């Protein structure tokens, strides 16, 4: 069985796809990923398998393909931070996978802000409930949260403030590394629930 490659393709901009990731994708026989992940590699003319909600079926297919082909699974950002890698590790051992890191949107967010991110708490609201996140959100210090359409920055801000959290400065970092990139710095109290959901929400120290 060939090792299944899990390749981090960065936060969105093609300039942020590392050369080693492009090299590994070119070596693969099959590329696996969502449309946005696969599009930058369309010129390679590889066989493409889309990622759907049927993750169990995908894992079985990957195992079969890897018996005779080189397979690359393309994930946004870095594979080690809230990506498909966590699910794949339930089905494949570390020795059956070759994981190559990519640039995370969280890294870019802190870079845009000119703020060191060591010591920051890193969270994701994807597929979670606000009350599960609340204890971490109320801890003092820098935090970066991957938000979504359900738990938008405004809704998370309301949750924090209603439970005694500080009205801290916050940065909303959207579509990082793309031409539509936007970084807005404000305070938690100034956000509302109509804020666009998907972004890196960085709660800063005073």
Key traits:
206 residues; five-stranded mixed sheet; elongated
**Head-to-tail CA distance between termini:** 52 Å
Shape: elongated
Give the rounded overall mean pLDDT. Answer: 95
Radius of gyration: 18 Å
User: What percentage of residues falls in helices of 4 or more residues?
Assistant: 25-40%
* Main β-sheet, spatial strand arrangement: 3-2-4-1-5
- Helix-and-strand structural type: alpha/beta
| Strand proportion | 15-25%
Uncertain residue ranges:
none
- Count helical runs: 7
Largest sheet: 5 strands, parallel
Count of strand segments:
10
Order of helices and strands: EHEHEHEHEHEHEHEEE
Could you characterize what this model shows?
By secondary structure, this protein is an alpha/beta fold. Helix content is 27%, strand content 21%. The protein contains 7 helices and 10 strands. It has helices at residues 19-27, 35-38, 55-65, 85-88, 105-113, 130-137, 153-162; strands at residues 4-8, 30-32, 47-49, 71-75, 97-100, 121-124, 143-146, 169-174, 182-187, 200-203. It has a 5-stranded parallel β-sheet, sandwiched between helices. A hairpin with a 7-residue loop joins strand 8 (169-174) and strand 9. The radius of gyration is 18 Å and the shape is elongated. The relative contact order is 0.16.
């Amino acid at each position: 069985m060939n090792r299944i490659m899990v390749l981090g393709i960065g936060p969105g901009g093609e300039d942020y796809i590392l050369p080693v990731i492009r090299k590994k994708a070119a070596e693969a026989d099959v590329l696996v990923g969502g449309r946005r992940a696969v599009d930058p590699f369309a010129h390679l003319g590889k066989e493409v398998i889309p990622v759907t909600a049927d993750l169990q079926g995908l894992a079985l297919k990957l195992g079969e393909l890897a018996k005779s082909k080189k397979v690359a699974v393309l994930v946004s950002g870095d594979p080690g931070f809230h990506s498909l890698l966590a699910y794949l590790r339930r089905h494949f051992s570390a020795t059956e996978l070759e994981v190559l890191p990519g640039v995370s949107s969280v890294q870019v967010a802190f870079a845009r802000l000119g703020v060191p991110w060591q010591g920051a708490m890193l969270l994701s609201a994807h597929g979670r409930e606000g009350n599960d996140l609340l204890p971490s959100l109320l801890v003092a210090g820098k935090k970066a949260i991957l938000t979504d359409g359900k738990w938008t920055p405004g809704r998370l801000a309301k949750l924090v403030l209603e439970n005694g959290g500080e009205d801290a400065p916050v940065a909303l970092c959207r579509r990082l590394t793309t031409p539509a990139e936007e970084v807005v710095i404000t305070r938690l109290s100034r956000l509302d629930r109509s804020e666009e959901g998907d972004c890196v929400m960085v709660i800063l120290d005073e």
